[in-house]
Amino acid sequence: MRVMILSSPESTHFTCMVPLAWALRGAGHEVLVAGQPDIVPMARSAGLNTVSVGRRFFGTDLLTPPLPPDKRPIEIVGPLTPRMTMIGSRVWVLNSRYHAAEYLEVARQFAPDLVISEIFDWAACLIGGVHRIPVVSHRWGVDPMSHLMRATAEDLLQGTCERLGIEGGLPRPDLLLDPAPPQLLVAGAPAGAPIRHIPFNGTSQAPAWLRRRGDRPRVCVTMGRQTIALGGLPMFRGIVQAFGDLPETDAVMTVQEEFADRLGTLPSNVTVIPPTPLNRFLGTTDAVVTHGGANTLLTVAGFGVPQLVMPQLVDQFEGGDLLAAADAGLTLRTAEEQNAPALVAEAVRALLAEERLAKGAGVLAETMAAMPSPAAVVRDLENLRCAY
Q1: In this predicted model, what pLDDT tens digit does every residue of 301-324 receive, in sequence order?
Q2: Maximum separation of any 2 CA atoms in the chain, in Å
Q3: Which helix (H) or strand (E) holds 158?
Q4: Which of 5, 152, 164, 176 is the most exposed place for a label (fewest CB within 10 A)?
Q5: What are the structural domains of the chain?
């Protein structure tokens, strides 16, 4: 079977599909990743064959122009709303429409039997409609958006479908895969077929000392690569201050090298390291402070570690809320709360002390471990048939 994998031009949107791509190759299927240059390095680092389509997207540029100095998006626009989803979805749909012809040409040459894409890519549905092959949509994790984006996609791609001879408008995916456990399903979103989340956090190495347990509780602070770049430096300094009030803990903060020397004076119990694959050291970590990015949230949840979510963008707010509702963590969902070191310190103490949070995180991890592996899902994909 020949499988073509597409992704919107954000590497963090793509990584959720890497374990499935590995499983497909392990089962003897040919896999080709097609995407804009933004995702090609990540795909190649995972050992996957790639073809580059179009130019770089520079997704961060969508967020930076309106930001005053040292202000984060949450401080300007607040949490995601359905209206914001509808407005923002136009960018991703129009990007798919703009590159549709190039993706269709890659598909013509590669002749796939199956197309897999993540939820912000819509070109896969066009390929499926033209070539009459099954299409699989793959969520990254907690998904409050894609079902709201569907109407926008149908509207903006109607003309494209007509020109391509696709009757009935934009085809729907034949299968929706969901790596989030049932506890993290957004109300109103359709349920998908489960697929176990297997972390792919890149290929760098964790320090040896971090892979061993310390003498005191260890808390990891990992806020993704965008948070500090998008005006987050004052918040990071506040987190450092919070751990100055938690001398009974050891904090490990992952921070890009260009920002590490701008954090100010560090307490003796705070260590800063470069971005490092979480799955290499979560087994020696007692709690995590995070922005709630999909891959990060599910990676931590899979290890059964309680987490404090300090959401910054889009799906992260819903992820934090659902995690807290499952008693697997806490969330500080407003900029005012996030900017208060005393509240951050209080939440970290609760993560380390409250039995209900340890129990809830453990239950979530057990649920995830029972979900079908990517290898098991491949067997279903081999029998998948186009709906029309």
Answers
A1: 999 999 999 999 889 999 999 999
A2: 66
A3: helix 158-164
A4: 164
A5: 2-196+372-382 (3.40.50.2000), 208-369 (3.40.50.2000)
